[in-house]
């Protein structure tokens, strides 16, 4: 799944096993979700044909994800 122009605060009932964020030469930023880290990286790479070179990427993090991997809110460690 592709969440256009959203790097954080995704409101979705779908919790994919992985989420990655990326930003491109043209300023487009996106978060993608997939079944694995490789799936997400492939989605980010596919977007290069439309938005130019991928200039930054990272694993998505929130209360359900840590460095891109789904961990579930009950496993989130608050600092």
Helicity, in percent? Answer: 10-25%
- Tell me the number of helical segments per DSSP (H or I, 4 or more residues long): 2
Low-pLDDT parts are: none
Output the radius of gyration: 12 Å
| Overall spatial form | elongated
Question: What's the pLDDT, averaged over the residues?
Answer: 86
Pattern of helices and strands: EEEHHEEE
Q: What structural category arises from helix and sheet content? A: alpha+beta
What fraction of residues sit in β-strands?
25-35%
Q: Mind describing the biggest β-sheet? A: 4 strands, antiparallel
* Strand line-up across the major sheet: 1-3-2-4
Calculate the terminal CA-CA distance, rounded to whole Å. 30 Å
> What's the total count of β strands?
6
Characterize the structure shown.
This protein is of the alpha+beta class and 79 residues long. 18% of the residues lie in helices and 33% in strands. It is built from 2 helices and 6 strands, in the order βββααβββ. It has helices spanning 37-46, 48-51; strands at residues 2-4, 18-24, 29-34, 54-59, 65-66, 69-70. The strands form 2 sheets. A 4-stranded antiparallel sheet has the order 1-3-2-4, covered by helices on one side. A two-stranded antiparallel ribbon has the order 5-6. It is elongated and about 40 Å long.
């Amino acid at each position: 799944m592709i969440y256009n122009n959203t790097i954080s605060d995704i409101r979705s009932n779908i919790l994919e096993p992985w989420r990655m964020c990326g930003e491109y030469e043209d300023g487009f930023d996106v978060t993608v979700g997939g079944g694995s880290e490789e799936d997400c990286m492939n989605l980010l790479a596919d977007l290069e044909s439309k938005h130019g070179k991928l200039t930054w990427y990272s694993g998505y993090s929130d209360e359900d994800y840590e460095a891109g991997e789904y961990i579930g809110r009950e496993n989130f460690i608050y600092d």
